[in-house]
Amino acid sequence: MPPLAAPVPGGSPGDLARAHALAHELSAQGVRGIVLAFVDTAGVCRVKTVPWQGLQPAVAWGVGMSPVFDTFLANDAIVRTDVLGSPDGDLRLYPDLDRLTVLAGQPGWAWAPVDRITQEGEWHPGCGRTFLRRIVADAEDRHGVTFRAGVEIEWALGRAAAPADEFVPATSGPAYGAARQIELSDYTADLLAAFEKQEVPVAQLHPEYAPGQFEVSTGALDPVAAADQSVLVRQTIRAVSQKHGLRPSFSPAVAERGVGNGGHLHLSLWRHGVNLHAGGEGRYGMTAAAESFIAGLLTHLPALTAVTAPSPASYLRLKPSQWAGVFTAWGRETRETGVRVITGSAGHQAQDANLEIKPVDLAANPYLALGCAIAAGLDGLASSATLPEEVTDDPARLIPDEAVARGVRRLPTSLDQAVEEFREDKVLRTALGPVLADAVIAVREGETAAVAGLDDAGVAAAYRWKY
Ligand code: GLU
Ligand code: MG
User: Fold this and answer.
1) Which numbered ligand comes closest to the C-alpha of 204?
2) pLDDT digits (tens, 9 = 90+) for 281-312
3) Which of 152, 250, 264, 337 maximizes ligand 1 atoms within 8 Å of its Cβ, making it the mutation to test the pocket?
4) 323 lines ligand 1 (CB under 6 A)
5) Which domains does the chain have, with CATH numbers?
6) 335: Cβ below 6 Å to ligand 1?
7) How many other C-beta atoms are found inside a 10 Å radius of the C-beta of residue 116?
8) What is the distance between the alpha carbons of residues 138 and 276, in angstroms, rounded to a whole number?
9) Pocket test for ligand 1, best of 155, 213, 259, 305 (most atoms within 8 A of CB)
10) Which of 34, 144, 182, 258 is a good FRET partner for 283, with 20 to 30 A between their CA atoms?
11) pLDDT for position 361
12) Contact 260 CB / ligand 1 (< 6 Å)
């Protein structure tokens, strides 16, 4: 992929003709409007919509929306940085036609993710999607590597009719239980049908551990497409749940105690079409490049937490023994280390081997999370960083001296601590650029201030239905 080309105000002739044809096809299929979606710094998906006739003008000139959303909090309050958060200015939302999808769960609607571009026709430095596109393009340009990525989606499913915004689990069966699958048989079948219609390749859909919890995992894609897909999957789950009188929460912690909702990231590094996590001389068949990439991830993991676990509610989830991976360690198929190395089964390694980053939740903006994770890994790759020894079993059992000797650190236990780590991390801040890095800090500080004085139950309640 070449370095990111400049946007074309007015649209390229090819895109305009394509948008015109697509809009008429959509209309013939009964689509009346198109949802234009982006995710803000706080992790909330924000949208504008246009009628189908507006698709071509949107591809040409974008659709207006204020840059103030870069510093929105999850509760819609607004914080400021030196350059963001002002009521002035406007941006243009440009839909990506390659991702335009007719929404199976919302008859009459199609959906597309957008890049946000300035009125002067420049990339907006606060756009998370553009940031990820730039990181991926630079990785190929500078390091000759490409990626395959996926975002796991876990959600706690509640009853829509529950009083006072409480969470009342929609099922009573046990974790991974057949009872849960049967109780929600129609719902999950409708979900699968919607994903199929939208050409979202589902790998698995299952009842998870916590009360009312489910998970869907989808096939690996290039990182931008994977982030887009995670947004689309959540839009679909919300719509289908609503039809069944149900309400999904993607919040890291729907309740103050217990296992939360993760949004684990899967990543693999490829060169010339070859998976660098298999067939190498390193541990479990990893190449030196894959090992160094993971070493880079582990070094930056405490600071990365400010991006991948961005909500005060994230720290109700990020606890040992909850499979959230709260230590800077890696292990093969180890669910308590920050990075789980997945080799794939015999015969499938070359295709399936990858790494999973566990201290990630769905309050995270998936574009920022994937972009920063890649930047962290590439820092290790560029310096040929040495991957430390593997940690198996629960790192929590390591006595403090042993943990220090092995470089195993507990990840931040609060959003404040994560922000402190992030401030010190030049690699992540440089990758994001000053506008986005400052937005991350300001929004995280704003979230912390917004929950000052609340106990854990109050924090869980404050964010329960925000993500
Ligand atoms: N729900 C766990 C989390 O918060 C993850 C469970 C699993 O490994 O799938 O990350
Ligand atoms: Mg899971």
Assistant:
1) 2
2) 999 999 999 999 999 999 999 999 999 999 99
3) 264
4) yes
5) 13-124 (3.10.20.70), 137-463 (3.30.590.10)
6) yes
7) 22
8) 18
9) 259
10) 144
11) 98
12) yes
User: Which residue, judged by its Cα, is nearest atom 7 of ligand 1?
Assistant: 323
Which residues are close to ligand 2, an ion, with C-beta < 5 A? 215
- What is the value of pTM for the model shown? 0.97
122: alpha, beta or left, given left = phi > 0 and alpha = psi -120 to 50? beta
Q: Tell which atom from ligand 1 comes closest to the C-alpha of 324.
A: 10
Distance 324 CA to ligand 2 centre (A): 9
Q: Which atom of ligand 1 is nearest to the CA of 317?
A: 4
* Element spanning 422, H or E: helix 415-424
- Cβ 459 vs Cβ 316: under 8 Å: yes
> Does residue 259 have its Cβ closer than 6 Å to ligand 1?
yes
Secondary structure (H, E, C), 66-91: CHHHHHECCCCCECCCCCCCCCCCCE
Structure confidence at residue 3 (pLDDT): 60
Residues 89 and 68: their CA atoms lie apart, in Å, by 8
Tokens of 367: 């574009």
Contacts of 153 (CB under 8 A, 6+ apart): 215, 216, 217, 218, 230, 233, 234, 237, 250, 263, 362
Q: Pick the ligand that lies closest to the CA of residue 317.
A: 1
Instruction: Say how many Å lie between the first and final Cα of the chain, rounded.
Output: 33
Q: What is the CA radius of gyration of the chain?
A: 21
Residue 210 alpha carbon, nearest atom of ligand 1: 1
377 lines ligand 1 (CB under 6 A): no
- Give 153-167 pLDDT, tens digit per residue: 999 999 999 988 999
Q: Which residues of 80-111 are buried (b: 16+ CB within 10 A; e: fewer)?
A: ebebbbeeeeebbbbbbeebbbbbbbbeebbb
Mean pLDDT of 211-236: 97
Contacts of 278 (CB under 8 A, 6+ apart): 285, 286, 343, 344, 349, 350, 353
Sign of dihedral through CA atoms 382, 384, 388, 394? Answer: positive
Question: Looking at the DSSP assignment, which residues form a beta bridge with residue 50?
Answer: 34
pLDDT one-digit tens code per residue, 61-112: 999 999 999 999 999 999 999 888 888 889 999 999 999 999 999 999 999 9
Chain position carrying tokens 């990626």: 147
Q: How many Å separate Cα 75 from the centre of its chain?
A: 19
Distant-in-sequence, close-in-space partners of 449: CB < 8 Å, separation ≥ 6: none
How close is the Cα of 314 to the center of ligand 2, in Å? 16
